[in-house]
Amino acid sequence: MLPAVCVGLVLGLSSLITYTSHQGFRRPQPETPKPQLVETAPRPQSPAPADDAKSQPGNIVTAPQGGPKLIVVGDPMKRAQDPRTAHIPEPDLLEQSPFGPLPVVAPDGRRALDVYAGAWSGARGARVAIVIGGLGLSQTGSQHAVQTLPPEVTLAFSPEGNSLLRWMQAARQNGHEILMQIPLEPYDYPRVNPGRNTLTVDASPAATLENLHRAMGRITNYTGVMNYMGARFTAEPDAMTIVIQDVAKRGLLYLDDGTSARSKADSVSAQQGSPFAAADVLIDASQDRGAILKKLDELERIARAKGTAIATGSAFDVTVEAVTSWANEAKARGIEIVPVSALVRDPEKN
Fold first, then answer.
1. Of 192, 80, 181, 196, nearest to 131 (Cα)?
2. Which helix (H) or strand (E) holds 24?
3. For 179, which of 6, 26, 156, 301 could close a Cys bridge (C-beta 3.0–4.6 Å)?
4. Helices 164-173 and 139-148 meet at what angle, rounded to 10?
């Protein structure tokens, strides 16, 4: 009798296990993959098909082979570089050349102008940008400028300078937005000489681009370029068009230092749809502290009247000290010091 009972129990338990293995312990069926939301910067896109309901303005819908659709949501606020890595170039924003790495627009549409732009409040009110050039020409002067000037001040590097990579990294780590200066032909050239690889009016387009790229390849992480001298070159629309076209296609701004009334940089930039700004005041034509402070006060008056103003100067010790002192006082008077990229006429944003 006992063996029969045991056999029955074994058979019953076997049936239970068989039943539960198909019912109670069934593995859950894999879920159908859902569209994934990925935050990234917006990129240029073709018009979405009319029958794709998920293709909305500002979003990008892609379908990797064999995988689910990815809805890429563009967020302009995500474009700026992390301040902790501001001294490190973004690989997608560079192309290699015989003259060093050159800026390019990233595959997702990001520009150096956006990624390397300095921070500011975004508020309205009187705003001024101050650009101090000649970084790299003097090692002690460069160190003094990088370590002393407020981070809101934009620094411009000379292609003639030394240890430019070192100073670029130090400037970016200290919060500065940076520009690259381009030597352009002045009147009375070569008696008045901006330096090696000067862009000249009579050069061929290929030679002009070669010298432009020699300067641009010295460093990375800059938002744009500005002229160094160049009264004759900037007065020639054909010569300027070659430069502005290349600068614009690389996602950069062009800053005119405002020293030549004959400059065609503004009109050429408007024609080419290039980001552009022009300085209102040169603050240190006279290297005297009192004269520099008067020019900075003039800058403030322009900003209060127009809303914005831009000044340029050089990394002389007297200029650095005067700008630092004035900037701290101007902030207390409600003037915001902003990077030059904040005051650019940018067709992409406007």
1. 181
2. none
3. 156
4. 10
pLDDT tens digits, 21-78: 333 333 334 444 444 433 334 444 433 333 333 333 333 333 444 444 433 344 444 5
Range of the domain at 223: 93-343
Average pLDDT over residues 214-220: 98
pLDDT in tens, 269-287: 999 999 999 999 999 999 9
Neighbours of 98 (CB within 10 A): 9
Q: Alpha-carbon distance 297 to 346, whole Å?
A: 27
CATH code of 282's domain: 3.20.20.370
Strand, coil or helix: what is 133? strand
In a domain, 79, yes or no: no
In a domain, residue 87? The reply is no
253, burial (CB in 10 Å: exposed 0-12, middle 13-18, buried 19+) = buried
User: How is residue 174 annotated by DSSP?
Assistant: T
